[in-house]
């Protein structure tokens, strides 16, 4: 489920997921420098059925311990996060082609304007359904967006929606070379 941090995470957040195109730079009109990004994920689907199904495979004497651990993991998956991300002109000009997309998945650039960027990923495997990322440049110093995706876990579809906001902190990234998780 963490894979749905998506393009905003690659742009301003906590990882490198999106495979965009080195021959097509990102047109999003944002200021290079240090950015602070807040993400707030929510999960939907029959999470209880997923937990119950997974717990059936656990010996009875360990089941309660596993239930507690799984509930803690789910609670952690929906915790809001704050990141610092260093965005450079080089990062923008090369279109974030730093990483490959997920295996069995294809990414397409649905929109690439000064104010909006939309990336869609569709997957051919049965576990991942892909995602849609939309980033809107409110101004050169502020962005908002969403990442919506779905994943199949133990036969249950879990949907992930992440709301994203980002604010430019300054031109100097200081000690942040790529990204840092604040909390």
Tell me the domain tally.
1
Q: Report the biggest beta sheet as strand number plus sense, adding barrel if it closes.
A: 8 strands, antiparallel
- Give the radius of gyration: 18 Å
SSE string, helices as H and strands as E: HEHHEHEEEEEE
Given the structure, what is the number of helices? 4
Q: What does the oligomeric state look like here?
A: single chain
Report the portion of residues in β strands: 35-45%
Helical fraction equals 10-25%
Q: Count of DSSP E strands?
A: 8
Largest sheet, spatial ordering of strands: 3-4-5-6-7-1-2-8
Average pLDDT for all residues: 78
User: What spatial form do the alpha-carbon principal axes imply?
Assistant: globular
Distance between the termini: 18 Å
Q: Regions with pLDDT < 50 over 5+ consecutive residues?
A: 1-22, 96-100
The structural class is alpha+beta
């Amino acid at each position: 489920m963490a894979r749905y941090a998506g393009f905003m995470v690659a742009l301003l957040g906590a990882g490198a997921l999106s495979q965009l195109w080195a021959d097509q730079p990102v047109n999003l009109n944002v200021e290079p420098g240090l950015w602070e990004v807040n993400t707030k994920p929510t999960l939907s689907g029959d999470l209880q059925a997923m937990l119950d199904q997974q717990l059936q495979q656990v010996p009875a004497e360990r089941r309660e311990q596993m239930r507690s651990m799984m509930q803690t993991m789910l609670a952690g998956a929906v915790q809001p996060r704050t990141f610092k991300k260093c965005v450079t002109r080089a990062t923008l000009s090369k279109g974030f082609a730093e990483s490959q997309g997920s295996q069995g998945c294809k990414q397409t650039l649905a929109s690439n304007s000064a104010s909006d960027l939309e990336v869609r990923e569709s997957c051919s495997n049965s576990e991942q359904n892909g995602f849609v990322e939309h980033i809107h440049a409110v101004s050169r110093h502020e962005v908002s967006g969403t990442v919506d995706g779905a994943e199949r876990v133990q036969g249950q579809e879990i949907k992930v929606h992440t709301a994203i906001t980002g604010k430019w902190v300054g031109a100097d990234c200081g000690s942040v070379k790529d990204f840092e998780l604040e909390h």
